[in-house]
Amino acid sequence: MASKVFRPRLNLNHVIFQGNNNHAQSHSFGQVFLHKKTGVSSSRRSIVAAEAAALMAEETTAKTGNSALSHFWREVQGSNNWENLVEPLHPLLRKEIIRYGEFVAACYKAFDLDPTSKRYLHCKYGKSRMLNEVGMEDCGYTVTKYIYATPDINIPMQNEASRGHWIGYVAVSSDESAVKRLGRRDLLIAFRGTVTNHEWVTNLMSSLTPARLDPNNPNPDVKVESGFLSLYTSDETKSKFGLESCREQLLSEVSRLLNKHKVEDLSITLAGHSMGSALALLLAYDIAELGLNKTDHETVPITAFSFGGPRVGNPSFKQRCEELGVK
C-alpha cells in the first residue's frame, strides 16, 4: 500500500503572541514574539500607543528605512539581534522573511507526490530548471545541490528502492545584479517540512539525546531531539545506493561553496518549515560548532529563518547556539 503524504500549508506571517508581557521579545533564532494585551484599552491609551508606534517607526526609518539592503544586510540577518527592527516590523526585514519563505515554498511545489511517478518523493525537476519551474526564475540564485534525508525508520513502502527522500536544496546567489542588491553572496539552504509517514514517525521521536556533532567537543549537556538528529545523521552507505547522510551532503557542499567564494562578503542563510526548520537549526549549529564559517579574515554570519518550527533542543543547546553566534 502506498504511503499517504500530506502537504502542509506554509504560513509566511507566523507570529507567536505572548500574554501579559510588557516587552517585546526577539528569539535568538529569528522567531518573533510580540506581546498581546488583554482587555479593552481606553481611547486615550490607544492614541498614546499609536503615537508611540508611529514615533518609533519614524525614528527607525530615519536611521535605516531608506537604506538599501546592500548597506543594511548584516542587521537584517540579525547581527544586532534585530534591535528596533521587530516592533514595528522593518520593511526590509519583512521582505527578506517573505523572500526566504518563498524559497521554502519552492520545495513543496517541486516535490513529486504522485505515487505512479518515477520521481515519487523526489524533485520533479533537474537542478538547472527547478527554480524556473516553480516561478522563481528572477530570484537571482542557482541551485548547486539537492539534499536527501534518510529516516531511520523501518516502515515498508511501495515504489521505494531507497529510503532517501528529497528534503531540500542548496543554492547560491549567482546573478551579479542580485549579489549587488543583497550586498554579499548568499549561500542558501532550504528545507521542506514533514510529508511522508517515515517523517511523521521521526517527528514523534521527541526524547533528547546528546548532539555530539563535533568530535573535538562532545559536550554531553547539549541535547537535541533524537528524531531530528536521526534524520540529519542517518545514511544508506551500506546499501547499493550508497547515499550519504543529510549532514554529510550538506557540510560537503557548504564547505565547497565557502572555499569557492572565500574572498567575497558572504552569508549563510538557512530556511525551513516545520521539520525542515529543525534541520535548518541543526545545520546552523553544526556549521558554527565545527567552525566551518570562520575564515582568516572574518566569521561568516549564519541565520536561520524558521517557519512554524518545533523545539529542537534543550536550554544548553539554545545557550550554545547563542555563544556560537547562530541567529
TrEMBL record:
Which parts of the sequence belong to the Fungal lipase-type domain? 189-326
Indicate where this protein resides in the cell: Plastid, Chloroplast
The record, for SUPFAM superfamilies, names: alpha/beta-Hydrolases
CC terms in the record's Gene Ontology section: chloroplast
Keyword presence, Isomerase: no
Under the heading InterPro entries, the entry gives: AB_hydrolase_fold (IPR029058), Fungal_lipase-type (IPR002921)
Q: Which UniProt keywords apply?
A: Chloroplast, Hydrolase, Lipid degradation, Lipid metabolism, Plastid, Transit peptide
Gene Ontology terms for molecular function: galactolipase activity; phospholipase A1 activity
Recorded superkingdom: Eukaryota
UniProt-listed GO biological process terms: jasmonic acid biosynthetic process; lipid catabolic process
Using the record for this protein, list the coiled-coil segments as residue ranges, or answer none: none
**Keyword Chloroplast on this protein?**
yes
Question: Which family is it part of?
Answer: Belongs to the AB hydrolase superfamily. Lipase family.
| The protein's name | Fungal lipase-type domain-containing protein
